[in-house]
Each structure stands twice: as C-alpha cells, then as structure tokens.
Specification:
Number of domains: 2
Biased composition (Polar residues): 361-372
Largest sheet: 3 strands, antiparallel
Family: Belongs to the SAT4 family.
Subcellular location: Membrane
Distance between the termini: 67 Å
Order of helices and strands: HHHHEEHHHHHHHEEEEHEE
GO cellular component, one term: membrane
Region (Disordered): 292-314, 351-372
Length: 372
C-alpha cells in the first residue's frame, strides 16, 4: 500500500479495530455459552458464521487497499484496478452474509428469551423477512452484472443493474429490519413486574441495538458517492469503512446482553446479588413471558442469568430437588418481587440457593429440601 493513501489506511485501521473488538466479544460469548453456563444454541453458531464473514470482509477491504482503494483510478495500474474491483465484489457478498447471520442470531435469541405468543410469531415473521430479503440481496450482489466479470472489467454486451438503486434499496431495507428488531422486545420489557431501575437497565441492554440503526443511517452518505462514481477506487474507501463498522457493531450488540454470567464471575461485587437464586439445571435459558401453571396467577417473569451468583459460604447452601414444574418468587428489601420458573415435567433438576433466599421463597409446588 502506498504511503500517500490516507483513505486506504483509515479503512484498514477502522475495520481491523472493530473486527478485533467483535472477535473478542464473540470468543467471550462462546466461552460463556459453551463452558460457563453450558447451554449453546443455534444463535451462537449463527454469530460464529457472522464473525467469520466479518473477518472475510476485513480481508477484502485490506486487499482493496493493497491494490489501490483510496487512490484515484488514474493513479493505479490497470491490472490492480481490476483486482481492487474483484475484491470489492467479494466484499458485497461477505457484507450481506454478516448482516443476515447477525440478525438471525438476534431473532433466535429473542425466541429463547421471550415466550409470549405474539413475540414468537413476530420472531418467525421477521426471520422469514430477513432470510427472504438476504437471498435477494445476495443474488443481486453476485449477479449485479451479467456476465459476472463485467463488474470489474469491460465486457461486450454486458448488462449491469443500477448500482444506485441496488445499494440504496438494500440499505433502506436493512435499516427497516434493524428498527423492527430493535423495537421488538421493548413492549414486553415495559410490561414486566420490575421496579423502575430494573426496567430501565433491561431496556438499556436491548436498546444497545439501536446503535446499529444509527450506524446504518450514517453509512448512507458514503453510498451516495460510490453508487454513481466514475472513480470507484477513490470513492469506495468511506463506504467500505462504514460497511465494516456497521457489520461489526451488529455483532457486538448481539453479544452484549449475554455477557452477564461472565461479568458476574469476573466482577461479583458489581453484578452479583445475594437477594435471589436462579435454576441451573433443567432449563438454562432465561425466559420472559407468561406463566401457564394452574396454581399461579398469571404474572410476567424476568430472568437474564442462568447460573447462581451467591457469594455466601458452602455452609449456608441448601440443595433443592424439584420434581415438577416450579415457580419461585423472591421479595427483596424494597418489597420488589422477582420470579423464575422452569417447565420441567417429571424430571429432576438441582437448584443451589442460599438458605436466606429459600426461606423467603414462595413455591407453588411441593419441594424436597435436603440438609447437607
């Protein structure tokens, strides 16, 4: 890369930085899901694919810069111009793959957490929308020109799609999908039986995804320059930079809500609480929805952790073996109630809870308590 190519250098530096941050969070997420709470799901595999695609996108950007992106096309060797445009074509595919797999991962995560029927239906509808549109965007990027080679070199009789229309249609639909995914959990969270501080904190966790919408909108300005450009190697540098930022911010936002168990282990004084306990056996995924047990009144449920975080000594620990559906409610010093449930039926699971918590718990089923 030429030393007088600041636009290219900026594209590499920014892309590498955001890709590195996203990679670290994905690794921490996978460690948490596979080894800490031991409950990996399909969403974790999808985010792994997204991360691999993001690395591919960064490589494509680096190759473009190596062959002249950021410089005027008149300053680049014609052979390098062709190589740059080939890498640009490949970057469109990896970019769409990152966005698609990240959105699928988030929606699958919503399906795990929110058990309310209308949210489940909304998740399926959004999944169909995301997958259907991604197929169109992917094929549109691959076959933007027919024959495909016409994307990076002149071909007699070639036909190419209007790039302005393609780029802005894809960007507009992606922004619309981002807002749908961002807004989906808000009504459920607002209806939870939480105090104001807990509710604001939970909304804040999901609202981090709104940052993706902001980045996607900021990227639109760079698309104006590249869509009708006659100097693509020069004008594509800002668009490539924003595309990488958008892709990696989506990955980062999808991982942050799942970092609570790991943060609790590393910073127990900040994130843990001896006011409550959470089931660790039968259903490690937290759920937010409506209770269906006949013995309980209908009540919203809230749980983000899936491991116990009590800091008390082993002498203060009791083992509770539950052999049926159970719902536990714990009242804190302020009179606020938090609830957890598992829909185990006919299976045993073990919950480790502090003795103080279990003495204050109101269970809707019979439990067998064994002293150590």
């Amino acid at each position: 890369m030429s030393s007088n190519n600041p636009r290219g250098r900026q594209a590499i530096d920014v892309s590498a930085a955001f890709t590195g941050i996203a990679a670290v969070l994905v690794i921490l997420r996978l460690y948490t899901r596979f080894f800490l709470i031991r409950c990996p799901g399909l969403e974790d595999y999808m985010i792994t694919i997204a991360m691999a695609s993001s690395i591919g996108l960064t490589i494509c950007i680096a190759l473009q810069v190596h062959w002249g992106m950021g410089q005027h096309v008149t300053e680049i060797d014609p052979d390098n111009t062709v190589k740059t445009l080939k890498a640009f074509w490949a970057s469109l595919i990896t970019y769409n793959l990152v966005l698609t797999t990240t959105k699928i991962s988030i929606l699958l995560q919503y399906r795990r957490v929110f058990t309310t029927k209308w949210v489940q239906i909304a998740c399926w509808a959004n999944l169909a929308f995301v997958i259907g549109f991604s197929l169109w965007a992917m094929l549109g990027s691959i076959f933007a020109c027919v024959p495909v080679q016409a994307f990076w070199t002149e071909q007699p009789g070639a036909r190419c799609i209007n790039k302005f229309a393609m780029f802005f249609t894809n960007a507009g639909v992606n922004i619309f999908q981002d807002f749908l995914i961002f807004l989906l959990p808000i009504p459920v969270v607002q209806g939870l039986n939480l105090n104001k501080r807990q509710k604001i904190a939970l909304i804040g966790i999901f609202a981090v995804g709104g940052f993706v919408c902001i980045v996607s909108i900021l990227r639109l300005h760079s698309l104006v320059a590249i869509s009708g450009s006659r100097d693509q190697t020069y004008d594509n540098a800002p668009a490539a930079t924003w595309s990488s930022v958008e892709a990696n911010v989506g990955i980062i936002c999808s991982c942050l809500p799942l970092m609570r168990p790991l943060a609790t282990r590393w910073l127990p004084g900040v994130f843990s609480s001896n006011k409550r306990s959470i089931p660790t056996g039968a259903r490690p995924y937290a759920t937010i929805g409506t209770s269906r047990t006949k013995r309980n009144t209908t009540r919203n449920e809230y749980a983000l952790d899936s491991r116990p975080h009590s800091r008390q000594s082993d002498a203060d620990i009791r083992e509770i073996v539950v052999t049926t559906d159970v719902r536990v409610q714990v009242e804190d010093d302020e009179g606020n109630v938090s609830g957890w449930r598992t829909d185990v039926s006919g299976k045993e699971w073990t919950e480790i809870a502090s003795s103080k918590d279990t003495e204050r718990a109101n269970s809707s089923t019979d439990t067998l308590v064994k002293e150590p």
